[in-house]
Amino acid sequence: MTPEISLTQDPSHRRHGSNIGQPLTRREGVLKVTGGARYAADNHPPGMLHAVLAVSSIARGRVTFLDVQAAKSHPGVVDVMTPANKPALAEDPDAKTNPFMFRLDVLQNDQVRYANQPIAVVIAETLEAATEGAALLSARYQAQPARVGLDAGESFVPPAVGVGKPAELRRGDVEAGLATASSRIEATYETPTQYHNPIEPHAIVAAWNGDALSIDTPSQGLAMAQGRIAGLFGISPEKIHIRSPYLGGGFGSKGLISGPQILGIMAARLVGRPVKLVLRREHMYGPVGHRAPTRQTLRIGTDGNGLLTAIDHRAKTVSSTFDDFFEPAADVSHTLYASPAIATSHEAVRIDTGTPLFMRAPGEATGSIAPESAIDEAAWACGMDPLAFRIENYAEVEPISGKPFSSKALRDCYARGAERFGWSRRPLAPRQLRDETGCLVGWGMGTATFPALMFQAEARAVVRSDGSGLMETGAHDMGQGAWTAFAQIAADALGLDLEQMEFKAGTSDLPDAGIAGGSSHTATAGMAIHNAGAAVIAKLADLATGDQRSPLFGAGNAGVVARGGRLFRRDDETRSDSYADILGRAGLTQIEARGNGAADPAAQSSYAMHAHGAVFAEVKVDPDLGQIRVTRLVGAFAAGRVINPRLVQSQIFGGMIWGMSFALHEEAIMDRRSGRPLNPNFSEYHVPVNADVPSLEALMIDEHDPHVNALGIKGVGEIGVTGSAGAVANAVWHATGIRVRRFPIKIEDLV
Ligand code: MOS
């Protein structure tokens, strides 16, 4: 089946030049499909050894024996790194000086805190020898009973969840709102443990040269990785050179440097040779972060007109026994629907698990499938169409804060998506539609929302006397096409055609581009690029307008525009000067400037900033077998300015597929006896394959946001997951009349 593709973008929004808004293909696309792109694990420095992890098969206890002799006697094995001989670290890997630190298991002692925790590293001349050496270690343990799942372990309430929000928040009187409601629902939903499965597992090639360190490793946050490694090894960050030109996906798992990557560096130090360590797929199910399971209870009240009177959203999740990452699942209820009373709360239990971490819309993905299902249940309880119900309860301001939205084209998303999908033909009651083969057909929808975040980034812009330009920032391309979008922003910022401009990114030696996370990278690094370009153009304008020999003499900075390698007088475009001539007359070979990208605190305190969307799903369910097929997904999204519609479409499609995966496929089955994931591989950890993916449509709705940042970018990486999961779940209910509240929905739930 060929997915139908449809994208719209108003060309009038291309006010900053001719590159932003173009559907360019990825700059590195040909290299990737021809095998020319060199990923971290493709590097083989001379003298390199291979390292393989041995991991714990218990979830709690200690390692009592490792047959190091047997492993070392295997031909090709060079050394075995254990807590006994590991190189000393300058910093405790369990220390945490800021919330963006991830406590690491790097052989600090014999304790086992979760299944698949690294317990030794075997280093050998070949991958095969290292793998065999790891098997020969034959670990023995003193095991304690593992605490597994949402009902085990000690409970705690974190001081803050997500990006510094309080764990409990309320506005209005929820109990009073529920008491006066004419219709009420109370429902509890469960979302499963999910593990990271980027195509490229975590990998590192590490080489020491004295106290300098050269690293190839995929990273979503180069400067943070550099800082963490510097601290652990007691060297200055300038001594650490990290190359991360290509990533085979990140999705949050490569946002913070993980234990296995540090172990690769330690192994290289131990043996005094370069070392490569690539995680086996099943070793991803422990030390690199994952999505925590949740149990969410929603109570929703509505009055006789279908208006919400109260939303109470309580979320329970898990964290590890030794760290405190917290999936902020209830926070989406702050934003989604207008209600005079809203209360959200979070708690977690500490269980014997690797610490959960960011995974594609952390909080919003888990937190939207539950309320989107609950809103569907509430609409049905008062006999209303779920779209009409959502529009009736449309939030004109952010419900929890009362702040106006910086922009919100969600009404257009609802209208355009519904029209494209044919929603008006949907029967209200479930189990009304069948296809020609007798399958039950169901239509469901969900609202998508994700905050428009910005962190910190820096860029350096150069214009050279030959008229060419350079833009540098250590930005991260996880496969989403970031470099292409950034080059488009850079070309417009420098007033150059793309061909006249060089764009450098992907190493820690470049200016800090912040983190490719929270769907914030394009906005943050994009603004750094935009500002660096503007600063270098301002310098050129100063030179030209102050030089009597320039046609721009006396025009003043504000009176010039940059385009095609020239500055033009704004009031008289027949008068212009080329960058080359401006620099040549000044006797300069180049001119440079830096720029920062960061959120504007004043705008942030005045406005609620979110991207929005509406997703419509069709499913078909075999009434005898319970088999569920998603046959159509239509999404309409408003996320501010679209830098590159082709790449945005691909991000949104990826998100929509992930949402469908959330509703129907993905789940790590945790063994209650051992605390181990029972399906740590693609063979049994289900994700949608092409045959599962239906016709997809992503409509981008025009949205001009004057407040989020000067470019009007909101971010598109994660929002696609958020509406889609609920839409699919609601479509399954509409097909069958069965409301499944434990995800993923399975065949056995429907027969
Ligand atoms: Mo994403 S979970 O912010 O990489």
TrEMBL record:
Gene3D superfamilies: Aldehyde oxidase/xanthine dehydrogenase, a/b hammerhead (3.90.1170.50), Aldehyde oxidase/xanthine dehydrogenase, molybdopterin binding domain (3.30.365.10). Residues 1-22 are annotated as: Disordered. Residues 1-10 have a biased composition (Polar residues). Residues 34-145 form the Aldehyde oxidase/xanthine dehydrogenase a/b hammerhead domain. It holds the Pfam family Ald_Xan_dh_C. GO terms for molecular function: iron ion binding; oxidoreductase activity. This is Xanthine dehydrogenase YagR molybdenum-binding subunit. It comes from Bradyrhizobium lablabi.
